[in-house]
Structure formats: structure tokens, C-alpha cells
Amino acid sequence: MSEIGLLSTVEQIDLIRRKEITSRELTEHFIDRIERLDIEINSVVTRDFETAIEEAALADQKIRSGDHLGRLHGIPVTVKDALKTKGILSTGGATELRSNVPDEDAAVVAAIRREGAIVMGKTNLPRWSGDIQAYNDIFGTTKNPWDLSRGPGGSSGGAAAAVAMGFTSFEIGTDIGGSIRFPAAFNGVWGHKPSFGIIPTTGYLDHINGGINEADINVFGPIARSAEDLSLLLTVMKRNSPPWIADLGTAPKDLKLLRVGAWLDDEFCPVDEEVRKQLEKVVDALERDGIPVDRSARPELDPNEAAMLGLWLVQRAISQSTDSDGPGHRIWLDRHARREELRLKWAQFFDKYDAVIMPVCFVPPFEHQQEGDFGSRTLMCNGERRNYVDVVKWTTMVGMAYLPSTVPPIGLGKSGMPIGCQVVGNYGDDSLTIALATRIGDLMGGYQPPPRAV
């Protein structure tokens, strides 16, 4: 039983279907791991274990009765606390919602429940999902399972730490500036930021009255221990009713025919040597595997302009949580028009290339910083002090263009911390980026549990 919690969701589903383990046994296994091992991590901050065990017993009864089973039947999960979860405290990390218990699920939570998933609890995040760390005034600080002095990334930091530690079968993250991609990279797990709009984002608690509308740029996506899980979970979570039917694209039949680019560093946001060396190992491994990579591939755009425009658009999209009116709508329309021009530049790039490998963050997982804010904090990179805002430059220029990005685990850097990369593709090519990331993960060793998880 000791390793079952560290298996992939697909493997756990198979065990339940073959009756080698019951849903109740799996649920109790996760609960035991959380109660024993989460004391120092602080990832699963709201727990509804009693209800989860009751639901697991019902799931087992359905199996014995031969009832029709959903694709996630009997699988216990946690959910990021930014998502409305019926009957379970859902705070968005904000004291204003410290007593908020919704009477309905976010659309994506409802989707996994319809397929038989069992929600055990909620995972930690920064206030209104607004940081690359995971701490708030209600639940405190989540720590990185690989090094407790460092953060797990954000904003889905509790979610990714829970996946890495085997506290949940999978997680649902949110990503507007990198909030799936950073935690996946920092914890050594798999994450996928979908093409914008593929998964409904209603029920998102990003301000006190949040949940009704769908914010610009923001997406929901899976965080898991295998690439196969990402593909399964996307099919469960995606929109499947008119007027908008989501298309995930098709996976390539032969990866060696892909036109792959590598954009591993750039003057607009220089990358730390530790990160750069790990990314170069990825490209070297692909080339040895017979997949050619063009290390000079670049879209014809100014990356700093794209990154800062992306940050501006993100700030407007989250303005309801900051009590800021911001600029007038005409200014937003002008910036949106420029965004569309840059999206065209990306589309032209993907006429020549199928995917491009990029950094997630310019530095490895960094130590906790809770003083100051985005504008005043700093990070060290290659012996130089850099502005904290640089953490989102490689992610916002992808996100603001609505592009899919898959993050595979690619091993540990010299600091002993996980490093990740983005596999970015054209809009709607989610299956392609997952396929290429799958190969990268295979070549680089895939998910490895932190030592304290074993």
C-alpha cells in the first residue's frame, strides 16, 4: 500500500476497476498520507475526510452492483481553494471569504464529480491567486516538498505540492500568469495550461463576488503525476456542450517529423545558469532521440513588449480583486488590439514550427519572500539582483496569446531542486504539446517523488 498514493491517476483507476483496491482503501490511504506528512508542507488546508469516506463506500457499492462507472469513478482528489466546491469551505485565500461555503461547484469541479471523482479537501494558494508563492492570512504558508525553505510556486502551489507528495490522485490548477506552470516546474510534476477557453472557468474565486464571469487569459488545467493523466483529465474537463465545443487537436503520429524550436534564453529576461543547463539537457536528449531542434527559432516579436503587455492585461483581468478601476475601456481595447497583432505573429511562427521549448521561470525554486510585493521584491540570478516581476516574463507572453503550454518534469538542477520547461504550441494544439512533453518527460526521467514523500 505504501506506493499506491504515488501512482498515476490512470494506474489508480485501473486498480479500482480490476478490484485490486477499493475506493475506500485508496481514500483512507490518501488521508493517512496527508495526516502524517502534510504537517510540515501545509498543502491540504481544508479537509472533508468523513464525507469523502462515505462517498468512497458508495462508489465501492456501485462497483459491486455492476453499475455504469464514470471515467474517474472512486478516485479521491483535492481541489485548489480558488474553485467553488459545493459544501466545502472555499476561500480564494482571502479573509473576506473565510466562512464561504458555496452551494454549487465550479463547472470543472462538477465535471470531475460527474465522472465519479471524490473531493476530499482544498489546497493552499496566495490571496486571490495573486502570487508565485502560496501563503495567505487564513492558512499560512505552503512549503516546497523538496526544500522547506523554498516556496512551491504559485498560485497553485498547494495543489502541486499535494500531487508531488501523493496526497491526491490529481489536482485542478488555475493559470493566468503561470499559476499551473510554476508549481508544476517547482515541484517536479506534470502540468498543462490549456488553450484559452477550452475549459470553462466559472466558479473561480478571484474577488469577493467572483465565480460568475470568466476572466481574460485565465484558464483551468490539470496537475498530475503522468502525461497520460493530463490527456485523460483534459477530456473530462473540457467544454462539451453548445454553443462552444472544445477541440484539443490531434497528437502527432511521428514525433521525429515535428518541427521543434528551442528558445532557452534571451536578453529580455536572462535565465539562471542552473535553469539554462537543465533546459539544454532537454534539447540534447531530444536530438539524440532523433527529434531535430532548431535552437535559433524565434517568433518575430519583441519578447519584452509581449511580456509586459501580457502583465498589463493580467493586471486588468484581476483588477476586481485589487479594488482598482484602472484605465478606461478604450485603453484596454487598444491594448487588446495590440495583443491580437502579437497573436498573429505567434501564428505565423507556428506556420514554420510545431512547438517551441521555453523556460518557465528564469530562476530555480526560490526561498519564501513575504515582505513587500511584486514591485519591491528581488531575486538573485547569476550573481545579480533582479526584479521579482521578471518571474512572469516567460509565462505571460505565452498566456496573453492564449497558447497551450505543457510542463514536464525534467530532473533536478545542481541545487537539488526540480526544474521544468514549457512546451508551447499553436492555439488548439494541446494534444501536440502534451505528446512532445511526454517524450521529454520519458527522456528526462519523468515524475520522481520528493524524498520526504517515500
Task: Describe the SSE topology.
Layout: H1 9-17, H2 23-37, E1 44-47, H3 49-65, E2 76-80, H4 107-114, E3 118-123, E4 135-136, E5 140-141, H5 157-165, E6 171-175, H6 181-187, E7 190-193, E8 219-224, H7 227-237, E9 240-241, E10 244-245, E11 260-262, H8 273-288, E12 293-294, H9 303-317, H10 319-322, H11 329-352, E13 355-359, E14 378-381, E15 384-387, H12 393-399, E16 405-407, E17 409-412, E18 418-425, H13 430-444
Parallel strand pairs: 2-3, 11-12, 11-13
Antiparallel strand pairs: 1-3, 4-5, 6-8, 7-8, 7-16, 9-10, 13-18, 14-15, 16-18, 17-18
Helix pairs in contact: 2-3, 5-6, 7-13, 8-13, 9-11, 9-12
How many distinct folded domains? 2
Task: Tell me the span between the first and last alpha carbons.
Answer: 12 Å
In the CATH hierarchy, what is the architecture of the largest domain at level 2?
A: Alpha-Beta Complex
Strand content is 15-25%
Tell me the name of the CATH class of the largest domain: Alpha Beta
Helix tally equals 13
Total strands: the figure is 18
Structural class assignment: alpha+beta
In CATH, the homologous superfamily of the largest domain goes by the name: Amidase signature (AS) domain
Shape descriptor reads globular
Which sheet architecture does the biggest sheet show? 9 strands, mixed
CATH topology of the largest domain: Amidase signature (AS) enzymes
Rg result: 20 Å
Mean pLDDT: 96
Share of helical residues: 25-40%
- Poorly predicted spans: none
Write structural notes for this entry:
- With 454 residues, the chain is an alpha+beta fold.
- The protein has 2 domains: 4-245, Alpha-Beta Complex (Amidase signature (AS) enzymes), CATH 3.90.1300.10; 255-453, Amidase signature (AS) enzymes.
- It has 13 helices and 18 strands.
- The protein has helices spanning 9-17, 23-37, 49-65, 107-114, 157-165, 181-187, 227-237, 273-288, 303-317, 319-322, 329-352, 393-399, 430-444, and strands spanning 44-47, 76-80, 118-123, 135-136, 140-141, 171-175, 190-193, 219-224, 240-241, 244-245, 260-262, 293-294, 355-359, 378-381, 384-387, 405-407, 409-412, 418-425.
- Strands 6, 7, 8, 11, 12, 13, 16, 17 and 18 form a 9-stranded mixed sheet that branches.
- Strand 2 (76-80), helix 4 and strand 3 (118-123) form a beta-alpha-beta unit.
- The radius of gyration is 20 Å and the shape is globular.
- The chain starts with 8 loop residues before the first helix and ends in a 10-residue tail after the last helix.
- The model has no long low-confidence stretch (mean pLDDT 96).
